[in-house]
Write a structure and sequence with these properties.
alpha/beta; 324 residues; binds flavin mononucleotide; TIM Barrel; 2 domains; two-stranded antiparallel sheet
């Protein structure tokens, strides 16, 4: 399949694996890229820019295909040394960066000077237009269904994607809630040039995470995610568990008086415990509604080939049969 996204990133299939904290290690990114998609290493999971440089080198050892690095610009006061992370990306010869969180505007000159293609992930049309204005090459339009941070507008992809198509000139991928071929074809019909998947890629053989997490995704239904941290305007979609129940109870009790310190035990430093130790009630972790569509744990190649094969079939047989 050829789209503006496959052309832009020089990949075989219009399928991106979004950056995921403590999931997007070199093994994950290389498996997706080797299967013809675009794999992405999560920059800030690497504790220092030097660690990121080593992770990029490991990924180059595992694939000769293009891969990217995610740089998440955090909302809080924490300020990682972003310029040094970008230097590690540039020196590592990575030519694609997925940005997310706050606007990447301040860092665009450094990335553009190194000929890096920037795809910014955002949850609204206005932020997508801003990304276009500041020189991003593409956007990842992340609907309300998504795992992670859906923003505060709550617009699902059935509306958000065609709205993005009305306004954007640069290519965009549909992100959030996507896990199968029907949804890829729908995303293309709604104006996107490809898809970005997070949660679905966690339930793959190569995802370097604990088996308990993969099993939890297969078990979960579309009813099992919850939104937390709305009172802090840092809404996150997570899989329901005992810790998430506690957060929701505190949010109910404290309402708009809630402070991050009130829930810090449930939300800070959780990812290694979940992803590496498989301690499934250790805290809140991002998970999308697409869990309801995850029924197996294939290899990345099986997943991507299966999606592309079925998408072709839907386009050539099902859709064409309506107009023939
Ligand atoms: C476990 C997990 C961790 C994530 N961590 C990040 C992150 O660190 N930075 C980021 O930009 N997005 C992060 N995301 C969001 C994904 O990149 C992607 O946008 C999202 O998962 C898409 O929605 P989906 O899960 O419904 O496919 C994370 C998602 C998950 C499921």
């Amino acid at each position: 399949m050829k789209t503006r996204i496959t052309e832009l990133f020089q990949v075989k299939h219009p399928i991106i694996q979004g950056g995921m904290h403590y999931v997007g290690f070199a093994e994950m990114a290389a498996a997706v890229s080797n299967a013809g998609g675009l794999g992405i290493i999560t920059g800030l999971t690497q504790k220092t820019p030097a660690d990121l440089a080593a992770e990029i080198a490991r990924c180059h050892d595992m694939t000769d295909k293009p891969f990217g690095v995610n740089l998440t610009f955090l909302p809080g006061f924490e300020n990682p040394p972003y310029n040094e992370y970008i230097a590690a990306i540039v020196d590592g010869g990575v030519k694609i960066v997925e940005t997310a969180g706050r606007s990447p505007e301040a860092y665009m000159p450094a990335m553009k000077a190194a000929d890096i293609k920037v795809i910014h992930k955002c949850t609204s049309v206005r932020h997508s237009l801003k990304a276009e204005r500041i020189g991003c090459d593409a956007v990842s339009v992340d609907g309300f269904e998504c795992g992670g941070h859906p923003g505060e507008d709550d617009i699902p992809n059935m509306i958000l994607l065609p709205r993005a198509a009305e306004e954007l000139t640069i290519p965009f991928v549909a992100s959030g809630g996507i896990g199968n071929a029907k949804q890829l074809v729908a995303a293309l019909a709604l104006g996107a040039d490809g898809i970005n998947m997070g949660t679905r890629f966690m339930a793959t053989q190569e995802a370097p995470i604990h088996q308990n997490v993969k099993d939890a995704l297969v078990e979960a239904s579309e009813l099992d995610t919850r939104l937390i941290m709305r009172p802090l305007r840092n809404t996150e979609r997570v899989l329901k568990n005992a810790a998430v129940d506690r957060v929701i109870e505190k949010e109910k009790q404290m309402g708009s008086n809630l402070k991050i310190d009130d829930i810090i035990d449930e939300v800070a430093g959780i990812y290694p415990k979940i992803m590496q130790d498989g301690a499934m009630d250790a805290g809140a972790w991002s998970c999308g509604m697409v869990a309801g569509l995850i029924h197996d744990i294939p290899t990345c190649r099986q997943l991507i080939d299966g999606i592309m094969l079925e998408a072709n079939d839907i386009i050539h047989r099902r859709l064409l049969s309506f107009v023939d």
